[in-house]
Amino acid sequence: TTLMIPLPNPNLQFAEQPVLILLAQAVIGEAESATEAQKQGVGSVVRNRVNDYKGRYGHDWTSVILHSGSFSSFNRNSDRIATMLNPVKHSTLKVWEACYTVAYCVLNGNLPDNTDFATHYYTPPLHNFPSGWGNPEAYRFCLDIGDFHFYREL
Questions:
Q1: 8 A C-beta contact, residue 30 and residue 43
Q2: What is the DSSP letter of 35?
Q3: Max Cα distance, the chain (Å)
Q4: What strands, in cross-sheet order, belong to the sheet with 120-122?
Q5: What CA–CA distance (Å, rounded) separates 55 from 10?
Q6: pTM of the predicted protein model
Q7: Residue 2: which pLDDT band, with cuts at 50, 70 and 90?
């Protein structure tokens, strides 16, 4: 049996995409060439922000993912936008399926948090704590998954 994995509608804005597709777009945008554990980490960070009791990152999956400046792949000038809107054309079906599967499992609670409840991460080309996050004292280092460095905002 072949499972049909839905694709994004490239004619829709990100805010108009179904939540599952939008989360998969975030995963491919942020972690296209990453390992499965790193993709899971990106999904976990989104979920941890959705579940933030202080509501600092948005009020639902869509607002968290699209919160200004939160995920650089969604920045207006990002070179990731074409891949997120048309992943099979700009990446591969296999990569899209992996990102969609992670998104599905994260959204449905079938994939445990592998980041120690991180709300932030950075990856190369950054090699140090991002100055745009503000005061490093406001964060606790959680763990590394390869070159993805995960932190929790306190």
A1: no
A2: -
A3: 51
A4: 120-122, 148-153, 139-145
A5: 30
A6: 0.96
A7: low
Q: Kindly calculate the radius of gyration of the chain based on its CA atoms and give it in whole angstroms.
A: 15
Residues 58, 62, 65, 68: is their CA dihedral positive or negative? negative
pLDDT at 4: 85
Comparing CA positions, the residue from 6, 1, 8 lying closest to residue 26 is: 8
Per residue in 126-140, pLDDT tens?
A: 899 999 999 999 999
Alpha-carbon distance of 135 to 9, in angstroms, equals 39
DSSP SS3 for 50: helix
Query: Could you give the CA distance from residue 64 to residue 131 in angstroms, rounded to a whole number?
Result: 21
CA 50 to chain centre: 12
Share of the chain above pLDDT 70, in %: 98
Contacts of 14 (CB under 8 A, 6+ apart): 22, 25, 65, 66, 74, 84
Q: Name the residue among 113, 117, 14 with its Cα closest to residue 71.
A: 14
